[in-house]
Design a protein that fits this description.
This protein is an alpha/beta fold. 33% of the residues lie in helices and 17% in strands. It binds 1,3-dihydroxyacetonephosphate. The site of 1,3-dihydroxyacetonephosphate (13P) has 14 residues, from strand 8.
Length: 220
């Protein structure tokens, strides 16, 4: 299985989301899983319509239960419209909201309890600690996304021998069998490079353009 996950981050408004859906006309092949992490305000809207792609969330509350938590979205809020996956630990959450590996793994735990697969993002400096914290979980209950911070939104995607060496190291540090995606300036023109190395890709900017994202799905 290859995972092609888009991340819209805090982009698009309702009209733009509708335009995306109208232009999106891709039949997902059986051996590929395609999902788009949308701003949560659009999630239920998209999850309850036939739109041809799977909407997922970009984050989840650290609080596992519903209650007096203004502004939070819990796994219990999602009951009945659960996404198959949810991102956690994106570098922008780590950078802008000070999220640590402990916080991220606590969120991942809430998701796993609700049978939602977390896609846990990390850069190399967080890797060793994250791997230790994940030891208690079966590798098939989560996905990882290696996103080198310098490659995010810069057009400087990592590739070649450097990335091969990094992926080798990453696979040694995490439990055998863990599925690992690559993210960071993935575009239609470079996505084929990640085919043999990773189990899929996490795509930011290029996932906002339906035609380009469709090409990525085809070539990934
Ligand atoms: P870009 O593809 O825009 O570099 O973003 C990568 C990313 O952060 C995906 O989560």
């Amino acid at each position: 299985m290859r995972y092609i996950i888009g991340n819209w981050k805090a982009n698009l408004n309702l009209e733009e989301v509708d335009n995306f859906c109208q232009e999106w006309n891709v039949a997902t092949p059986n051996e590929k899983t395609v999902a788009l992490a949308v701003p949560c305000v659009f999630y239920a809207y998209l999850a309850t319509r036939k739109i041809g792609f799977t909407p997922i969330l970009q984050d989840i509350s650290i609080f596992g239960e519903n209650g007096a938590r203004t502004g939070e979205i819990t796994v219990e809020n999602l009951r009945g419209i659960e996404p198959p996956f949810t991102l956690v630990g994106h570098s922008e959450r780590r950078r802008d909201f000070g999220e640590t590996n402990e916080v991220i793994v606590a969120k991942a735990k809430n998701l796993m309890r609700a049978k939602i697969t977390p896609i846990i993002c990390f850069d190399l400096e967080q890797m060793e600690e994250l791997a230790k914290l994940l030891q208690e979980f079966a590798p098939k209950t989560y996905l990882l996304a290696y996103e080198p911070v310098d490659a995010i939104g810069t057009g400087k995607n990592l590739s070649g021998e450097l990335l091969q060496a990094q992926f080798k190291l990453i696979r040694q540090v995490f439990a055998p069998g863990t599925k690992i995606l690559y993210g960071g300036s993935v575009k239609a023109e470079n996505v084929a490079q990640y085919h043999d190395l990773s189990d899929g890709v996490l795509v930011g900017g290029a996932s906002l353009k339906p035609q380009e994202f469709a090409q990525i799905v085809e070539r990934a």
